[in-house]
Please model this.
Amino acid sequence: GAGVSQTPSNKVTEKGKYVELRCDPISGHTALYWYRQSLGQGPEFLIYFQGTGAADDSGLPNDRFFAVRPEGSVSTLKIQRTERGDSAVYLCASSLTEGQGYTFGSGTRLTVV
Amino acid sequence: QKEVEQNSGPLSVPEGAIASLNCTYSDRGSQSFFWYRQYSGKSPELIMSIYSNGDKEDGRFTAQLNKASQYVSLLIRDSQPSDSATYLCAAGGSYIPTFGRGTSLIVHP
Model:
């Protein structure tokens, strides 16, 4: 596609529920990144995919967070047993190759109530 | 821990002036440096990337890098009200840049 597409744009969920956030990167971009951003903060790295594999998942805060990219294009970030502290904007970005600047999607605003 | 420091601001400049935004980073192994602009409620947008010491100009924007001082700056010439946004600095090693908290810029008419 022309840009990085993220769905849904907004998600409100109850504490303890499971959520999935979807990212469709720019066609041909092999590098895909997930970040999350809280108000007044810079984006915080979560996980990086090169192709289908997670090249670096060191930013995932705990084992409730998991992400996949099975065919090397669309990625899904999965959060189990959501907590109120998970509330943030989850940003997906892609780049043609690693080391380049990113194109960010418009983000998913997750609110856990 | 890799850190990128920015003054949160706000930095307020009059229309037509030069806005100077600064950033320092802790990881001496950083090789790539980026400036992103983020409007309120929107996602970051890449405006400049710089990889070697010196200046890089693109239109009204100039990025400056000094690796010895671990310092990156962004100059915006002829600032416009539409430049009012938060500017995020990012510094990276091989592939995962660390972002600063951003500097809020206000350009007033």
Observations:
- The mean pLDDT of chain A is 95.
